[in-house]
Design goal:
The chain has 17 helices and 16 strands. The protein folds into two domains: 248 residues, Bira Bifunctional Protein, Domain 2 (BirA Bifunctional Protein, domain 2); 96 residues, Rossmann fold. It is elongated. It is of the alpha+beta class. The longest helix is centred in the N-terminal third of the chain and has 20 residues. Strands 1-5-6-11-10-9-7-8 form an eight-stranded mixed sheet. It binds histidyl-adenosine monophosphate.
Amino acid sequence: MMIKRPKGTQDLSGRQLSRIQKVEETIRIIMNDYRFNEVRTPVFESYDLFSRGVGNGTDVVSKEMYDFNDKGDRHLALRPEGTASVVRAYIENKWFGPEFPNPFKAYYIGPMFRYERPQAGRMRQFHQLGCEVFGAVDPSVDVEVISLAMDLFSELGLKQLKLLINSLGQPADRQAYREALINYLKPFEAELSSDSQRRYLENPLRVLDSKDTKDQEIVKNAPKMIDFLSEGSRKHFDRVIELLELFEVPFEIDHQLVRGLDYYQDTVFEIVTNSKEFGANTTICGGGRYDGLVESLGGPSTPGIGFAAGMERLMMLLDIEAVDLNEVEPLDVYIASLGEEAEETVLKLMNQLRHLGYSVDRDYLGRKLRTQFKQAERQQAQVVVTIGSEEVEKQEAVFKGQKTKKELSIHLDDLDESFDALFNQLTLDSSVIDEYFKA
Ligand code: HAM
């Protein structure tokens, strides 16, 4: 029987993968502009890292984690997210030390694992692009992190996005709010969805972001977190809002926004799309502040903030919005060949051109010339050269610019000195230049 890939995973190749690579390239450029450095951490970690870091009571840890005991009986888990891992690495490698930049700004792109019901944009192995900043409490850092996310998406060409923002205050503020919320929900208990009934005592804030319409109706008039913020948290939030306005980042305050992981305090945000194909308000990106997390995992008291975006959702949105990523890289030179006697000359030529920095391909299967030219066309080759017995004998060949239709002959001994100039002449479309001067 044929073996299939596990549910909720993907095999990638061809154009789909080229698009992902293009997006990753853009991400790396922008991350570098913002002076974030890449970090890579293991895909599996100690189970305790997530149960303590993300929270035992969260769905991510209690229902969705791939955990197992290894042959040495260690309790491990495939990482369901990146923040806890990066915090662990920050503490373990002492990235807070004087030889590292402070604030420490890191990003990652990599696979994450959650046992969820697979559907469009929800996978069991998915990929996140994430970033974290350690060591800075200033509201301007919140705004920088949010702008980074917005910049990334707009640089990629995405338009239908909305930024939602809220504050969860300090842990003590949240405790007071929690009680108020439980009191408010009590009379409605019987009317709540079964999920919310279960949640309302252990994690009443999660009732706020229930997808159930009846629940949503009930929480509409619930007390708002914002009225429970301590003075410091209120000031922080007001300043974040002020700066977002100053930088003209459009946003909406969403009093129902609570996020599904336990480590957050103060600023939380999500970037959602209203694209019809996705269904209402699909979250592309989520993040926030976690000023208590480093300390709670055994590090020095250090504030932190970050976000993560789902790469699969990002790619889906790019497809839906039909964003052209120019993912097909045209081939520089295609070498067509005729007869076995051409073989050595072709190999030598191919090597030489690749060392000069050109992408080169050829036929490996002894196919007809016509088929070889089709191959060249399919790869959008810019220049084609044909090597047969005559070319071998004279060590001279005619290179042809596919778009310009120009042809130039060159002695193969002169390639190193002259090929750059020849390639430019064959590929530079003079009509573009003429057009420019006419204008
Ligand atoms: P999160 O909201 O759990 O946050 O995940 C962030 C994003 O990952 C989601 O908005 C979504 O786009 C994507 N995502 C999550 N689960 C799946 C899935 N099963 N399939 C496809 N995509 C998925 C975090 O993970 C936090 N670590 C973000 C963060 C970083 N907060 C601070 N720093």
